[in-house]
Amino acid sequence: MAALITARIESLDREGRGVAHVEGKAMFVEGALPGETVDFTVTRDRHRFAVGRVHRIAGESSARTTPRCPHFGVCGGCSLQHMEFASQVASKQRVLEDTLAHLGNVRPQTMLAPIYGPQWEYRHRARLSVRFVARKGGSLVGFHERSSSFVADMRSCEVLPAHVSALISPLRELVDGLSIQRRLPQIEVSVGDRATVLVFRILEPLGAADEEALRQFALRHAVQVWLQPKGPESAALFYPPDAPALDYTLAEFGVSVQFLPTDFTQVNHAVNTVLVKRALQLLAPAEGERIADFFCGLGNFTLPIARCGARVEGFEGSQGLVTRARANAERNGLAATFTVANLYEPERIPPLEPYAKLLIDPPRDGALELVKRIGEREGPRCVVYVSCDPATLARDAGIFVHAKGFELVAAGIANMFPHTSHVESIALFRR
């Protein structure tokens, strides 16, 4: 057995691993929590840091709890089930504060109360990998194992809705009976208010018997089956032919958002509802006020802003999302406009001076080019920034505060992915 190293855990890193220092070298220890003294073995050693795994804990943290899922520790879907829920939220808030301070050299005037919702059965979107493994006796359907390309041998999932978790074993049996068993690499799950969709990624055409098996599966489990032979845009409904559209509701704003199963939507509908409400409270859109929503997607924030009476314009890089956002505005009787724009190309970014306020909700890369285009004195005086990566938020926050004359008025986290280290956050900038 590899030599054991003993260390006291100081904090958690952005991947949910315990952080310690041994002879000045950073150690990232899977399965360890702050305050614990642990014995661990090194699984990966580099010049400036090492990664290890807990072997023994000498004095457990008061935040430690028993993981609910029997697959925790093997499945890579969750990394923090061994940490009590409230402590997870507090840890993510500290990650946000520390990242803003260390990478952006900024501190919010106010830390907002964390946004959180149900900790189990919250995940309404998931990409399940499929792989035939002879030594396991057939096909595996689930998330990848932790730090591995192997598919976890799982029969349930505590963060998926119960009716989706219950489909894992039937899906394994279904795939085992298909002629393209080894040519079906993934099944994407998308759950709306009225429907559950399974998108089968197929690398070869289905045979007649395969098609009948999928029809029977859809009927038996009350799901829609879609087929995706190529990229996401090729996904199409297979059965049943009269299936209802996927949608979710933002009841407080009287808005219903329809989407395709391969469209980007937030995985956690309950937290998204509160996040939209928080964003609108911070933005405070006024009647007739001109507001831009960048990286607007299907209109998750744009449509509620329009409902408040503001003149809102959404900008998004995907033509498909813009087309569906326009349809959502029309379906909800709202006067919002949507434009296709690659917001990572400076020449594609519209002039920002006409807008009183901005809402920005970028992917993990952040919104560097957009933030750089904001004038130092002219243009928007209020920006609400929704982020899925504290590092790029901190980078962009540094530009807002140190180069554009804004103050970071408030910031806080939204626990969009309980039991994972993912940190979603929201920030208010004003000048």
Strands, count: 22
Mean pLDDT: 96
Radius of gyration from the CA trace? 23 Å
Q: Main β-sheet: number of strands, strand sense, barrel status? A: 8 strands, mixed
Q: In percent terms, what proportion of residues is strand?
A: 25-35%
What is the CATH superfamily of the largest domain? Vaccinia Virus protein VP39
Distance from N terminus to C terminus (CA atoms, Å) equals 59 Å
Find the CATH topology of the largest domain: Rossmann fold
Separate helix tally? 9
- The number of distinct structural domains comes to 3
Low-confidence stretches: none
- Shape estimate: flat
Detailed description of the structure:
With 431 residues, the chain is an alpha/beta fold. It folds into 3 domains: 60 residues, Nucleic acid-binding proteins (OB fold (Dihydrolipoamide Acetyltransferase, E2P)); 214 residues, Rossmann fold, CATH 3.40.50.150; 115 residues, Beta Barrel (OB fold (Dihydrolipoamide Acetyltransferase, E2P)), CATH 2.40.50. It contains 9 helices and 22 strands. The strands form 4 sheets. An 8-stranded mixed β-sheet has the order 7-21-22-20-19-16-17-18, with helices on both faces. Strands 1-5-6-4-3-2 form a 6-stranded mixed β-sheet, with no helix packed on it. Strands 9-8-10-11-12-13 form a 6-stranded mixed β-sheet. Helix 1 crosses helix 9. The protein is flat, with a radius of gyration of 23 Å. The protein starts with a strand and ends with a strand. The mean pLDDT is 96.
Compact description:
The chain has helices at residues 85-104, 162-165, 168-176, 208-221, 269-283, 302-307, 319-331, 368-373, 390-403, and strands at residues 5-8, 11-12, 18-22, 25-30, 37-45, 49-58, 110-111, 125-133, 138-142, 186-191, 196-201, 224-228, 236-239, 246-250, 255-259, 290-294, 311-316, 337-340, 357-360, 382-387, 407-414, 424-430.
